[in-house]
Every structure is written in structure tokens, then in C-alpha cells.
Amino acid sequence: MAGLTHQFLSVTVVLGAVQLINGYSFNNCILDVNSNRTHFNCINLKDKNMTAIIHDLPRSVTSLTISKNQVWHIPNNSFAHLPWMQNLRLDHNRLRIIDQLAFQNLHQLQSLNLSFNNISVLHPSLFVDLHNLTFLSLTNNTLKQLPGGIFSATLNLNTLNMSQNLLTNFSGITESLSHLRNLKKLDLCFNSLTSLSSNVSLPTSLTAIYLCRNNLSTLGCEHSFLGLIEVLDLSYNSRLPTMAFEGVDLGRINYLRLRSTSVKVVAFLNISNINAGSVDFSGTGLKNDRLLIELCRLLKTKVKWIKNLHLGINGIKNLTTDTLNYCPNITGYLDLSHNELKFTNCLHFLKRQTYIKGFNAEHNHLTTLQSCKTQTQNTAFKYLEELTYRYNRILSVSSHAFYHMQNIKTLQLNINTIAFLHHEALKGLTKLETLRLDNNLLTDLFNDTFEDNVKLQTLNLRNNRIAVIFNGTFHRLGKLITLDLGGNKITHFQPSGLDGLKSLSKFYLDGNNLKQIDSSLYRVFQGTLTVLDLQSNMIRFFNGTEIMSPFQNLSALRDLKLDGQRPHGLTLLPRAFFRGLHSLKSLYLTQNNLIALAADAFDDLTGLRFLTLDSCCVGVTKLQPGVFKNLRNLTILIVENMGIQNFSKEVFGNLTRLSVLHLNRNIMQSINVDALQNLTKLQYLDIRGIPLTCTCQNSLLQNWTRNNPKVQVVLLYNVPCQHDAKFKFYNFDSKVCYIDLGKYLFLSTAVVIFLFTLSPILYVKLYWKMKYSYYVFRSWFGEKWRRLREEEENCEYDAFISYNSFDEQWVMEQLIPNLEGNGSSFKLCLHHRDFELGRNIVDNIVSAVYSSRKTICVVSRNFLQSEWCSLEIQLASYRLFDEHRDVLLLVFLEPISERQLSSYHRMRKVMLKKTYLQWPGSDCTNPMQAQDLFWNHLRRAMTTGSRLKTEESLKCDVCVPAESEETKHFETSDENDYLLQKEN
After folding, report:
1. Domain end: 708, 739, 770, which one?
2. CA distance linking residue 649 with residue 654, whole number of Å
3. DSSP states of 252-278 as a string?
4. Cβ atoms of residues 366 and 392 within 8 Å
5. Does 657 reside within a domain?
6. What's the pLDDT at 356?
């Protein structure tokens, strides 16, 4: 019951909180919080039933991704309850069967992706409701043919991808597509087509068709069949001959790929009406000067200018000075990638191609870039802007290697093995804007390496072996915006190593060997730096004492990464470590083995919006109250796998703009709902991987997650109970945890009213009984009490005299002389004489009653008004009625009317049960005789045994007044001091 009461109180305490924040979930899907509740992802599920996966999704869904699952069948009307869907991805599943009406009611669908499945058959009416479909992908299935009329309703289809299937009948395909007046792109690569023979023309809107990697041995089409096509890919049809193009209109083609075919390009150009500048000559067997010169001469007879010349994958090993002189003027890019070039000889083979804008020599066998300053030729490539040598084997770059290319803006030397970069290798490149030297073997940079590159904006030196940045290395790079030094071995910067970087915005230092953060290095770009990446270094702090923040003056910094410090992590965060970062928007602290997070750790980050602490800590079992108190702008918080056991409501108290909270993979067994009460903007809560107990401790959380519509609790229905994974957290039986509030209030109100009504009656009827029982209970355990009960026959006194102090004169002058004197041998107990000093009054009364054979109550009007006298008669009457001992004698000193006794029920009961005596007053005929008789009766009553032998009532009228005497219940006054009542 105590537990239930506590639970009930908890319900009332957090009632307001439950109304402030809300929760909901889906069985298998996760809502993308950035999509205004319209984009869902259902990925990596074990469920094979499509209906079960999506049955609980709302009608508002516009984009749905169901990928990488075990689904093999889509039943009829699977998506009928999602009529507003516009984008549907069903790729990378195991789909084999799609029922005829699977996509019924999807009238708004625009994009459908069914790629990478096992679909071999499509029903002719499958897409009948997809009137607005513009994109359809069936890539990587096992389709052998298309049923007639399958696209009859998809009149808005713009792009159709059916690559990587088993299609063989091109005519059947064109029949299915003939009425599609909006189709522009058709991809049929990686099929088994043998020709393009067709009885039906292609849609007039079609401009791009991809037929690579088929088994085409002929085109087999009419003259005008390809007359409107602009992009045609016939590559990797190894059996396609030159003569296949004879008589085929290719006049609209602006890009044609013939890679790895049997086509002889020179012969092809002679028989075709294609624009020679539109042909990609990559992979066409032009592997020597003779063939290249022949091609160039032919091209020159057809066109004077050619935009791009693609000569990749031709096995070219060498180009002589005159090889490309016979070609038309190249105004765009020359592509020599994927050949076998070992030298470029300062591009001497391009000495007459002075208008060229870009040169691509990627994926060749170049080993060095020689100096070009000493060359005799004077060719200057005034228009050359882009030069790329990626994916070669370049070991060194000599001085003035680009002497004749001083106008280039983009130079890519990355992914080579460059170990030596001459300090004048980049000399003269005054217009260079982007330089990539990443993924090489560079160890040193000199202070004049980049001296001439004054317009450089992006410099990438990632993944080299640089250990030190020397003074003046970047002193001329005043316009540099992005500097990437990640993945090197940098241990430190010399004092002026970063001088000159006045415009630097993005600085990447991740994956180095830095052990500290030197704030003095950042002074030159402290007002411009927006991104600083320090992850995976060796930064570590050994105490949490306050230090001068290394970020003190980085007022513009927006993105800071400190995650994964090697090998032990940061361990501690010094106090005021983030001081000055008021503009910071994103902070990464994952994988850092922090042993504690101080309550003021993030106090300075008032502008922070994204914070990830995933796996950042060891031993942080409880987040400190107020640790996020200043992060009022935070929208995404990731505290995954931190070992959190519990947290209080003060932890998230000020996160009023938080929309995404990841709590997953922690070890708390319960979450208090009131800890989330201020998260009024919360939309996404992830509690997966938390060992939540299915007990009353979590009943409020269960109720919150199930019944409210504002916060998505990620895959709640898959969260297991800790004690048994077969049971789920969302539906464990929690009825026993709650009390019916209405019933409880009714019962409590009824009890209060009943007690309020009964209390006066109980007070009147049982007051003295309860009070007496209390006093007896108090004395019960006393040694004196037990001894008196056991030794009753050896009582210390013959009688205890109970009287009021106003009757003391009669007691002293009449009672004592007649019972202790005049030949009587009775021993009386009187309170003023025999009570033990310093002892509790109640204990003295109890002791007196039980130490005496009799209790004589001297009853008068004053006696009836005394509470202590009433207590004494109560004790004596208890022995009389409950213990059946004849111990009580009543002596009335004066006549008392029935009206006056009507309130003393206990005394009336005694009078009906026992003999009582009336003191003869002065109105008696013979007072002296009456008084002698009174004393004789009293002495005889005192000598009788204590055991009651009769229930008869005996009244001794020794000159009783005319009026009758009765008793009723005695109502006490407020309890006063015993001696004051007895003596005053």
C-alpha cells in the first residue's frame, strides 16, 4: 500500500508535466525530424511483412524509405492509407512479388525506386494509379521483359532506369514507352539487348538513352530512330561494329560514348553525320601517335574548334610534340586519364593548344613533375585553369614545375606518393585558388613553398607526414579560407607558423599529435575562424582547475570538434575551458573518457545548437543538475552510451528549444517523466538500448510514450523489458500501479465525513475509556504495576481515599480519625501524604489504586467537577467491572440531584452495582446515632473480600434525603494540574 500511495502521489505531482510534453512512436519506422513529419525511414528491419511495417504510419506521409529489409512481397493496397505520398523508396530489399494493386491510391506519387531486388515479373496494371509519376527505377532486378501497357497511365514519367536486368526484347520496351510524351531519360545499361530493332518509334521527348554493357552486335534501327537523341551511351558493347551506324541519323547527338566497342572511330566519323566534337573517344583503341594523328586530322576537317577531347582509357604511353598539333583547337578540357603516360614534359605536346582550359592526367604512371623554367619553348597556357594529376605515382615535384601554367586556378596533385615538393615548385602560380596535396608523403613545408600563391583559398594537405609547421609557412596566404592539415603527425607549430592566415575560416587539424591547444597561435584569424577540427589528437588534461581558455578570442567560431583524443581521451574538462565561444553552434566531444562533467562545463556556450557526447565519458553515472542550464538554444543533444544511471529534472530544465534527444545505450533502469517536463519543443526521443524495467517505477513513462502525439519515441514497440526480452516495455501490465482517482477521492471524503460525524459521539461515550486505557497501557510495563497485580493479597494500604480538596476538612476531621483512630487499625493512602515525590501523577494514582484493597470515593458536587477524581473512580471501576474485584466504595457527602448526576454514566453504573453510603446531614432526627451507624457500615465494607460474589445492588440509606439519586456518564473538564485541582 505504501508503494501505491507513493505512486499515486507521483501521478498528481507530474500531472502538469504530462500535459506539457507528449510522446508517440511507430512499430518499424523512424520519422525524419527535419521533414515536418512527412518523411519516414524503415531500414534494416527483420519483419518480412510489408503491411506490418507501415500499417501505423499517418496519412500525411509524403516520403517513405523502406530499404535493406527482408521484405519479399507487396500485397494489394499496401499503401492505400498513404494517399499523399510523393516519394517511395523500396530498394535493396528481397522483393519478388508485387501484387497488381500494390500501389493503388498513390495518385500523388512522383518518384518510385524498386532497384536492387529480385523482381522478375511486373503486372500490366501495377502502375495504373501512378498518374503523377516522374521517376521510376527498376535497376538491378531480374526482369526479362515488360508487359504491354505497363506504363499506360504514367504519362508524366520523365526518367526510367531499367539497368542491370535481363531484358532482351528492345522492341517490346519501345512499345511500352511509345506513348510517354514526357520521357527524357532511359537507362538500359547492363542488360542483354542484341539490337535496337523496333517497330515503334521512341518517344519524341526522349533525349538521353544509355545502352552500355549490353550484347549489341548491330543497331538495326531505321534512319530516324535516334534522330532526336542528344546523349547516347553505347560503351562496353564489345561486338558493336563500325558499320552498325551506317545510315543512322545521329545529327542531334552532343555526347556519344563508344568506349570498349569494336567501332573504328575514324571510319565511324567518315560514315556518320554526328558532330565530331560530341564523341567521347575514351576507350576506342587510340593507343599510338599514328592513330591519334589520323583522328586529329579528320576532326580538323570537320570542325575548327572542339570543346572537349576525351582520350582516356586508350593505353597511350607517350605523346610526341606534334601529336595533338593536328587536332582542332581545344577550348575546354583534354582528358588523358586512365592511360599509361610516364611523362608529360611540361605539356609540350600541347604547345599549339593555347586555348585549353583544363587538362586531366589522372590514373597514369607519372613519377615526377620536372621543372619547366629551363625549357626552350615559350608556350604559355593563358587559358589553362584546371590541372589534375591525381592517382599517379608522382614522387617529387621540381621547381617551377608549372612555369608555363601561371593562370591555373585549380591544381590537384593528391593521391600520389609525393615525398619531395621543391620549395619553388609552385612558383609563379599567382592565380591559384585551390591546391590539393592530400594523401601524399610530404614531411616538410618551407616558408616560401606557398609564397606566390597569394589568391589561394583552399589548401588541402591532409594525410601526409608533416610533423612541424615552421615559421612563415603560410605568411602570404592572406586570402586562404580553408586549411586542411588533418591526418599528419604535427606535434606543434612554431610561434609564427600560422601568421598570415587573416581570412581563415575552416581549419582542420584532426588526426595529428597535438598535446595542447595554444591560444596564441590563433590570434591572426580569431575573428574569422568558424570551423576548428581538433579531433583524434593527443590533447589531455590532468586536473579540472581553471585555465585560460584557448578559445577566448575565437568570437566567430561555430563548429568545434574535440572528439576521440588518443589514446586516453581528454579525461577532464578544465573549468572555463569553453569561455569566449558565445557563437559556437556545434560541439563534438565523443570518445573522450571524461571521468566527470562539471555543472558549469558548458555555461559559456549560450549559442550552442548541436551537442554530441556520445561515448564521451567513463564513470559519469549521473548528469549534474544544471549542466545544460545555459544552453537555451540547443536543438539537438546526443548523450548516447555515457553510462548514465539516472538524472534529475534540473538536468534538462532550461532546454526549452530542444527538439532531438538521444538517450540510447545508457544504463538507467527508469526515467522520470518530470525530468523532461520543460522540453516543450521536443520532437524526437531515442531510448533504444536502455535496460528499462517493466515495473511501477516506469508506469508514468510508459503512459507518456504511448498516449501523446507530439514527441516521437524511436521504435518504442521494439524496446524490450529488462527482465525478459520477450515482453515489451510499451505494453507491460501497469494497472496495479494506479489508483482510481475518483474512487479514491470518494472513499477518502466518505471516511472524513464519517469520522467528523462520529467524533463527537466517541468523545462523549468513550473519552474516559480511551483515556484510561492509554494511562493503563503507559503503566503496564512498569515494574511497580506488575508487582502490584501479582501481590494483591499483600496490599500496602487498606484503602485509597479519592476526594476533592474542597472536602479535605471532612476527610481530615471525620474520615481519618474514624478509620485510622478510635480503635480502628486501617491504613489509608492519601495523596498529599503518601504519593511519591517526583513521580508522574498518573503513575502515582495507578499505584495507589492497585496498592489498596479498596478505593473510597468521597463524592460531592466538587468531586464531580474534578478530572483527576474522575480518573481515580475510573481506575477503581475498572477493577470492579473488568477484573471482578470488590474494591470501590462510594461515600456521598451531600445530596446530589438526579439532574446533576445525569452526566455521570460510569458512577450510575457503580451505584446500581455496589453498596454506597450517604453521610447523614444535620437534617437527620438523630445525627449522632446516624453517624455511628455510617462508620460501622463503612468499616464492615472495608473488611469484605475483594472478589465479587454477588451482582445484587445494595443501597445503605443512613438518613438519605427525599430526592432519589442516580448517576450517569461523567464528562471531564480540561485536564489541569493534579495538585492544583486537589489542593485549591
Report:
1. 739
2. 10
3. T-SEEE-TTSS--HHHHHHH--S-GGG
4. yes
5. yes
6. 93
Distance in angstroms (rounded) separating the CA atoms of residues 203 and 155: 11
DSSP letter at 721 equals: P
**Predicted confidence (pLDDT) per residue in 710-735, tens digit:** 888 888 888 888 887 778 887 777 76
Query: Which three cell numbers mark 973?
Result: 473538564
The one-letter code for the residue type at 778 is: R
Cβ neighbors of 359 (< 8 A, separation 6 or more) are 333, 334, 336, 347, 350, 384, 386, 387, 388
Domain count for the chain: 2
Residue numbers of the domain that contains 933: 762-983
Domain boundary residue, one of 739, 774, 809: 739
Start-to-end CA distance of the chain, whole Å, equals 52
C-alpha cell at position 167: 531484358
For residues 10, 16, 21 and 23, what is the CA-based torsion angle, rounded to 10 degrees?
Answer: 50
Are 832 and 733 found together in one domain? no
CB neighbourhood size of 641 (10 A): 20
What is the SS3 assignment for 331-370? CCEEECCCCCCCCCHHHHHHCCCCCCCEEECCCCCCCEEC
At 936 the pLDDT is 86
Position 136 in a domain: no
Q: Are 144 and 162 in contact (CB under 8 A)?
A: no
CATH classification of the domain holding 731 = 3.80.10.10
Residues 456, 460, 461: CA angle, nearest 5 degrees: 120
- In one-letter notation, the amino acid at residue 508 is Y
CA distance 728 to 906: 66
Q: What share of the chain is helix, strand, coil (3-state, %, to 5)?
A: 25, 15, 60
Q: Contact at 8 Å (CB) between 678 and 654?
A: yes
Residue corresponding to grid cell 526510367: 160
Inside any domain, residue 725: yes
| pLDDT given for residue 681 in this prediction | 87
Residues 916 and 811 in one domain: yes
How would DSSP label each residue in 370-436? Answer: ---TT-S-----TT--EEE--SS---EE-TTTTTT-TT-SEEE--SS---EE-TTTTTT-TT--EEE
Pairing of strands 279-280, 255-257: parallel
CA distances from 333 to 307, 350, 361 (A): 7, 12, 11
3-state secondary structure of 740: coil
> Do 730 and 769 have their domain in common?
no
Same domain flag for 731 and 787: no
CA dist 187 and 166 (Å) reads 13
Rounded to whole angstroms, the Cα distance separating 36 from 58 reads 13
Q: Residue 646: what are its φ and ψ, rounded to 5°?
A: -165, 165
> Which is it for the CA torsion 84, 90, 91, 96, positive or negative?
negative
The overall longest dimension of the chain from CA atoms, in Å, is: 172
* 789 shares a domain with 701: no
Question: What would the grid cell of residue 590 be?
Answer: 565523443
pLDDT value at residue 967: 31
Place of cell 566519323: 269
How far is 638 from 640, CA to CA, in rounded Å? 6
Q: What is the pLDDT of residue 831?
A: 83
Query: Residue 613 half-sphere exposure, CB side, CA atoms within 13 Å?
Result: 24
Residue 957 lies in a domain: yes
Low-confidence ranges of the chain (pLDDT < 50): 1-22, 783, 785-786, 788, 792, 948-956, 959-984
Query: What letter would DSSP give residue 812?
Result: I
Nearest CA to 664 among 684, 645, 648, 641?
Answer: 641
pTM of the predicted model over 0.85: no
Whole-number Å distance between alpha carbons of 304 and 252: 19
Residues 869 and 807 in one domain: yes
- Run of H or E including 596: none
C-alpha cell recorded at residue 696: 511501477
